[in-house]
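dude i think i finally got it to work??
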Amino acid sequence: MTANTRQLRVVLAKPRGFCAGVDRAIEVVEKALHIYGPPIYVRHEIVHNNTVVARLTALGAVFVNEVDDVPSGAVAIFSAHGVSRMVERAAAGRRLEVIDATCPLVQKVHNQGRRYAALGYDVIIIGHAGHAEVEGTRGQIEGRVHVVGNLADIAALSVADPRRVAYVTQTTLSVNDTRELIAALTRRYPAVVGPETSDICYATQNRQNAVRELAQVAQLLLVMGSSTSSNSSRLREIGESLGLPSHLLDQPRDIDPAWLDGIDCVGLTAGASAPESLVQESIAVLRGFRAVTVETLDGVEENVRFRLPPELLAAERVLVRRDSA
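look at this
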């Protein structure tokens, strides 16, 4: 066969795509639209994916930058990334009916940070300054809080008592992402305390491990996800670091057939906020270029599911009773 007609092997990562926190956040918006009817206001993107946001917008969700943009007394949803206490107070001041879609794993980080602060520790957040999750976590902790994203940030730290320092991490960072920074903190502050590595977001770690497995067989890596998604961007970076030409794609139509020149095996995955539909559409686009075979790597089977927010479940029960009356 010639270079343009020989078969293309497409290998899918496992796991890939939506994690339990994203599934939950999207379901929160969908159920709120069903219970209350549109419009439902959502502070920031419910998850960092343009396809998801566009679909929910078409259903009647209105995405706003701040709660000040929400009409007084309306239904408002906080995104999966979490919010600060200042945002919570602003929502209460506008008498908003709030549904909190913060990922339970992010809420766990909030609780850890507050606990350390209550004990008098300087709390260090390992993460990307300005990221919605990091800003929410910072604003949930009352006390001395610092954000570090690299070794220079750690070198510049100034704490009240070097013997009372604690850290928490952004959930979209994996054990591998945080290892070097935790080691640097430990060297500088030998008494530093922090969560067990088992508290790292399972979805982030699993998807990064799956990309490393893909790199063993693929010659090219395609990651479905939006550029605003920290975990999706990191998957592309890992592919690059392992020597693979790697591309982060918001839409399948962005696949460039020139990337396939000389390529026999493509690895395909999706960030934790990217829907499976984008993966399947990508396969269809690839079939427009070459004959394609598809297989899925062995990987971790994720069966995690988080309960919906209690305020939404209560509203749903009221709706059911009203409909059955």
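The CA atoms of residues 72 and 317 lie 25 Å apart.
im so relieved honestly
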